[in-house]
Amino acid sequence: MLARELVFSAVVLGIQFLLCTAQCNNATTTLRDAADITQLASCKTFTGAIVVATDSAAVMDIPGLETVQGDFIAANNSLLTTLSSSTFSVITGTVLFQNLPFLTNLTLPNWISSGTLHFDTVPEPTVHDFQQNGQQVNNLIVRNTTFDFLAGLALQGAQMDTLKIVDNPFLQIINLQMGNISQSATITGSSADLVVMLPNLTYAYELNISNGSQVVLPRLQAVNGGMSIGSIKSPNISAPALTFVGGDLNITDSGLSELNMNELVNVQGSMNLVENAQLADLSGLSSLSVVGGLNLVGPFSNTTLPSLRRVQGNAIIESTQALNCSDISSTLVQGSYVCHAAVSISANPSNAAVPPDHGLTGGAIGGIVVGIIAALALLAAGTMILYRRQRGGVQEPPQQQEQSKVFENPVHEVGTEQRRRDAAEKDGNAIFEMRDRWPDRGELPGSQARPNRVRPEKRYELS
């Protein structure tokens, strides 16, 4: 009898174990009411997805379950008001709360980590209890909520992949503790009074923050891609440890009057400081050495960058104030260089670099060429007229007079010789008085020795 009872008990336990195993390992388990929840109560670990039914009971409390190796989804439910679990600790997949218009109580006091935490179109719970420390989330997405702050999320893990907080018009405070963001961080469309505090962030691949009153990034050292900060009311945007931006750096349409990025050395993309109505100088960029391009548009009165060595692309500077356009020398710019200012000031006009747009335009250069050609033509015509006047008896210039004097004596000598010959012809014997013999050999090059003899008398008829 005892043996039969033992066998029967073993069979029951085996069946219960199999049932429990089946209940704790399922592709998808749907929770609709208390009976469904009871089936999970004996499972400390559930493998698969847990989905709260769209027509579930208003209150869903899930005891006993500690780990979900999969997703936990509560979505499109207009009845749910309370979701709680005193034992939930780890959810390896996605935790999604979406389209829950009446959710007012979200209590997960022992929740530590999940792969993705996603809030989408949910109200701010009036009662919430998240563990304040130690939460690890690979991806945090908060979209289209009425949150005024992020329900106690500390997110102190060393790294997360994606941070996306968009279209939350009532959000006042973001204070997250993660150290690195390996992919992208986007915070946009929030309250104009939003304060963004990321006190431990040291590295991000992409960083985009817009709409708010203040941005605090005290430890940020490098952004491997692009970095954009826009529409921030604060007079100070501070990233005092930032040294490198691998893409574009955009700071636009803000109340910025002081930029604190004095450790920034290298911006591989273009630095765009545009429409910051109070930003008058670049004194907060004292270490900037290399930049892919410069686009400075605003009320700048001083664009001096003392450490700048190279602008790899174009430089465009447009100021509504008086500005010395040689603050940034055009010799440092490998691309085109354009500077427009309300008043262009040169501290040292003899040495100041003149930007191309203050130089000669194409039309001006063409006019100068035409003028030079016309001047050359006039010079040639004047020379021809002067030459013709000289030929016509106009007194020669001093140089030409000297040349005429060179030939004056030979002409006179020829005339004198002719008169002597005329006189000698009358005498009949004087014409040969100077040539009474042949030259001896050697007196003329190549001459042959000939006897001295008197040339036969020969008369010349002079005409």
What is the mean predicted local confidence, pLDDT?
Answer: 80
- Overall, the morphology is elongated
Query: What is the count of helical runs?
Result: 5
Assembly type of the chains comes to: single chain
The radius of gyration is 50 Å
Biggest beta sheet summary: 19 strands, parallel
Number of strands: 28
Helical fraction: 10-25%
User: How large a portion of the residues is in β-strands, by DSSP E?
Assistant: 25-35%
Features:
4-stranded parallel beta sheet, Cell wall protein Ecm33, disordered C terminus, transmembrane helix, about 475 residues, signal, membrane, alpha/beta, elongated
Q: What secondary-structure arrangement, pairings included, does this model have?
A:
Elements: H1 2-24, E1 25-31, H2 34-40, E2 45-52, E3 59-61, E4 67-69, E5 72-75, E6 82-84, E7 90-98, E8 105-108, E9 113-120, E10 127-130, E11 136-143, E12 159-166, E13 173-175, E14 180-188, E15 195-197, E16 203-212, E17 214-216, E18 222-223, E19 227-232, E20 236-238, E21 244-245, E22 249-252, E23 258-260, E24 266-274, E25 290-298, E26 310-311, E27 315-323, E28 337-344, H3 362-391, H4 398-406, H5 408-427
Parallel strand pairs: 1-2, 2-4, 2-5, 3-6, 4-7, 5-7, 6-8, 7-9, 8-10, 9-11, 11-12, 12-14, 13-15, 14-16, 15-17, 16-18, 16-19, 18-21, 19-22, 20-23, 21-24, 22-24, 24-25, 25-26, 25-27, 27-28
